[in-house]
Design goal:
280 residues, 6-stranded parallel β-sheet, two-stranded antiparallel sheet, 13% strand, globular
Length: 280
């Protein structure tokens, strides 16, 4: 009798566990954030927060010399201000993704503003955002998102792209250090986070992008053709995107610390945003 009871409960537990695993896998496939790729020998270099009139042209020169295609996630406000740089990047075969209008932290703004941020950036990037291969891709500012913002991006037809490799280039890291960090971390299928501009930062010295530009040049010279570099849309088409549930923690103390840090940010031009509270 005891054995039958245990077996019955185990079967019930197993069915529940299998259903839970199935639904979790399904949810991750539908709403998960792309962090890297499987089944490829290529790497995706991605650049956020541009375009910048000083740094982006130099980066484009380096990429053209090495015949490397990358993915840019420009801020709509800057894309509207420097459309010739977006035009040049698209003409050179680089993919252009959406990074919001003015780099707002999505978990701290309303769902309506989240959608407005994406739409405004899309308008500034048109007709370049969907080139090549028709993929609409979005990267949340700071990488911060919650379930609501992920669903808003999905509703607007965007796949959300994060990363699995970085070299902390949003600080004032040395080019040699960053290049070495990238060399150690990069693997086939990696998505690398870099910045050709910095929309806002804790200190003014972090806005300088020359060390990042130098690190990219060093990286491409060291790899010397050992890896292919493709855009995110190209990799989505030819390989298997790997997705994770990439959400900001919901613990109040964590949110308070994040908001406090965000409210200390400075901008190289214009006023930095002040966040009043967490928006569920």
């Amino acid at each position: 009798m005891l054995r039958e009871t245990v077996e019955k409960r185990w079967r019930k537990f197993s069915r529940k566990a299998i259903r839970t695993l199935f639904y979790n896998r399904l949810a991750q496939k539908v709403t998960g954030t792309i962090t890297h790729f499987a089944g490829t020998d290529a790497v995706a270099l991605t650049f956020d927060d541009g375009p910048h009139p000083e740094y982006t042209p130099r980066l484009l020169d380096i990429l053209e010399r090495h015949q490397v295609r990358v993915t840019f996630f420009p801020v709509g406000e800057f894309a509207q201000k420097y459309p010739e740089l977006i035009r040049r990047a698209a003409a050179n075969g680089h993919a252009i993704g959406n990074h919001s209008w003015n780099h707002a932290a999505f978990p701290f703004i309303s769902g309506r503003e989240q959608r407005e941020q994406i739409r405004a950036c899309a308008h500034a990037l048109a007709p370049y955002e969907q080139r090549p291969y028709g993929q609409r891709i979005f990267r949340p500012p700071y990488g911060y998102q919650n379930v609501a913002s992920r669903l808003n991006a999905l509703w607007l037809g965007y796949q959300v792209v994060a990363w699995n490799v970085h070299a902390e280039d949003w600080f004032d890291r040395d080019a040699d250090w960053m290049a070495e960090q990238l060399m150690q971390q990069i693997r086939p299928g990696s998505i690398v986070l870099l910045h050709d501009g910095v929309f806002d930062g804790l200190q003014e010295r972090f806005f300088d992008r020359w060390q990042t530009i130098k690190a990219v040049e060093m990286l491409l010279e060291r790899l010397g053709g050992r890896l292919r570099f493709l855009t995110i849309p190209e990799l989505i088409r030819e390989s298997r995107p790997q997705r994770e549930n990439w959400y900001i923690p919901l613990a109040n103390d964590k949110l308070k610390r994040i908001r406090k840090t965000l409210n200390r940010m400075k901008r190289p031009e214009g006023e930095a945003r002040v966040y009043a509270k967490y928006v569920a």
